Amino acid sequence: MRSADISRKTAETDVCLSLTLDGSGRAAVDTGCGFLDHMLTLFARHGGFDLSVSCAGDIHVDDHHSVEDVGICLGTAFAETLGDGRGITRYGSTLLPMDEALLLTAVDISGRGGLYGALNIPTQKVGTFDTELIWEFLTAFVRKSGITLHVQQLAGANSHHIIEGCFKSLARSLRTAVAVDAAHAGEIPSTKGALL
Fold this sequence. Notes:
Oligomer: single chain
Shape: globular
Strand content: 25-35%
Radius of gyration: 16 Å
Distance between the termini: 24 Å
Number of strands: 10
Number of helices: 4
């Protein structure tokens, strides 16, 4: 079973995260940031991942440290579960509509983490959540996972829809990329023989 348990404790946050790639989409998420909880819950559902996250953070300051550290832990969990990448499909992309919003994500589990593209989120907040933190989360995630991620917002006027569409699209792209390629189950998906 491809799973990982990650703990990270700093002066700013205390995060415990469990991830199972070949799950059923179950989530138990309590980060102290309601909007992030919502995004991670639907991320698990649309990715078919089982995800458990708890975070006690300094949200009396703001949500920044909690959001970033949860991204770090999720990225670390993906890297650990995938190991050397043997047998995975490696690539995935999803064009996903969320009402008026249209989001495209494309991933390459390359060992070379990078975040490219942009989101044009029209408001600074969704509820009490600072929307600029979405890019911080994604940056932390790709750096620790070694995943190349391209994000393109093709349409969208509602901040909630844009961000939700991004998380759903990313989940679907990752679901494809982490799937085992039965025809090449014992092989590393690179002519170099390594994902780096």
